[in-house]
Amino acid sequence: MAEPFIGPDGEARCRWCGGAPEFLDYHDREWGFPVDDDRRLFEKLSLEAFQSGLSWRTILVKRENFRRAFEGFDFDRVAAFGADDVERLLGDPGIVRHRGKIEAVIHNAGRARALVEEAGSLAAFFWSFEPDAASLPPPQSASTSPASIALSKALKKRGWKFVGPTTAYAFMQAMGLLNDHVAPCVIRARVESARRGFTPPA
Q1: Which of 11, 16, 22, 26 does the annotation list as catalytic?
Q2: For this structure, is 56 an active site residue?
Q3: Domains of the chain by residue range
Q4: At the topology level of CATH, where does 5-197 sit?
Q5: Active-site residue among 31, 43, 48, 169?
Q6: Any catalytic annotation for residue 26?
Q7: What is the DSSP letter of 96?
Q8: Predicted confidence (pLDDT) per residue in 163-202, tens digit
Q9: Which residues contribute to the annotated binding site for Zn(2+)?
Q10: Which among 82, 84, 133, 191 is most buried, taking Cβ atoms within 10 Å?
């Protein structure tokens, strides 16, 4: 295992959070903490789609621009985007201007609305794929899992785009469906405590 990153407080953390200035706060405050807010879940899955082939830093530094461009990732609003909105987004230098990914997020917004009708909420659907902790590989040693493969297949069956198993796994890591902080990381225990106090939506 790579040596942990030592933060400004002298505490050990996951090595990756020392890779860029933007990563530390994201690692300490967001990554791995359980989320049941539908808009945040849709946002993360959308940003993971934009990240495909790029670095997470590229997306993270543009996240506020993405939020502005996509109406705060309110999927009811995004689902109503049309051709003019696609052209507007393609002309927005603050985001990743990739037609396929832009159109996929708009398309997925419509699929998100349908999924809420089916499952009651995005959160209820996504958390139904929470893996059993005993079945997980060591932290940060895998890029897919049986659970992420199953989630990817379920989303694709419902027409979602840019939701492969690797994207699904990164989404699950970030949204707290598993605790993938390494053992020496000071945030691992905080995430574990948050998960114990969290009731997955039914």
Answers
A1: 26
A2: yes
A3: 5-197
A4: Endonuclease III; domain 1 (1.10.340)
A5: 48
A6: yes
A7: -
A8: 999 999 999 999 999 999 999 999 999 999 999 999 999 8
A9: 14, 27, 181, 185
A10: 191
